[in-house]
Design goal:
This protein is α+β, with helices and mostly antiparallel strands. It has helices at residues 16-33, 43-46, 50-55, 92-100; strands spanning 57-65, 71-78, 81-84, 103-104, 111-113, 118-120, 122-130, 137-140. It is 24% helix and 27% strand. Residues 1-5 and 145-150 have low confidence and may be disordered.
C-alpha cells in the first residue's frame, strides 16, 4: 500500500477496483494517523491494522531451477488478487487454477540460480500463502474478448 497517492475525481475515469483501492488505502491511512502516519510507522507495525487483518493476505512465489531443481520462495503482501482471464473460463475455480499453474519462464525472465550461479530457465508458481479474511478478486479480461461469446443472463 505504500506509495499510492491516487485520488478519485477531476473528471478522470476509474473502475470499481480503483475505487475500492482508494477506499482501502484511505482506511489504512486513517488507522496509521494516530501513530504518526504511514511515513513514520514501521512497515511491520503497519501490517497489524484492522484494514490489514481484514483485507491483507500473503502470496508465495516459488521459483524452481530446472537445471539443479533448487527452489526459492518469496512472499509478498497482497490486498487483492488480480486474475487474468485467458480464453473462456467459466467458474472462478478455473481462473484460480490458471493463476496457480506452474509457468516455465525464458528470455527476459531468465533466473539467476543461487546454487548453479548461472542464468537458467526457471519454473515459477504462485500460491496464496495466507488468505485474507475478505478476499477481493479482480478479474481482468483484455485478451480474446471478441473471440469468445459472453454468457447472456
Amino acid at each position: 500500500m505504500r506509495g499510492v497517492n491516487f485520488q478519485i475525481g477531476d473528471g478522470s475515469q476509474e473502475d470499481a477496483h480503483e475505487f475500492l483501492r482508494v477506499l482501502i488505502n484511505s482506511m489504512q491511512s486513517i488507522c496509521l494517523e494516530g501513530l504518526g502516519g504511514e511515513d513514520v510507522v514501521d512497515p511491520k507495525l503497519q501490517e497489524t491494522t484492522f484494514v490489514q487483518h481484514t483485507f491483507g493476505g500473503q502470496l508465495r512465489s516459488k521459483v524452481k531451477c530446472m537445471r539443479c531443481h533448487h527452489e526459492s520462495d518469496r512472499y509478498e503482501n497482497m490486498m487483492d488478487l488480480t486474475l487474468e482471464i485467458f480464453g473462456w473460463v467459466e467458474p472462478l475455480e478455473g481462473a484460480l487454477t490458471q493463476f496457480t499453474s506452474p509457468e516455465d519462464l525464458d528470455g527476459e525472465n531468465m533466473y539467476r540460480c543461487r546454487r548453479c550461479a548461472t542464468n537458467v530457465r526457471p519454473r515459477k508458481q504462485l500460491a496464496i500463502h495466507e488468505a485474507p479474511n475478505i478476499l477481493t478478486i479482480v478479474l481482468k479480461r483484455f485478451q480474446g474478448l471478441g473471440s469468445f461469446p459472453l454468457p447472456v443472463s
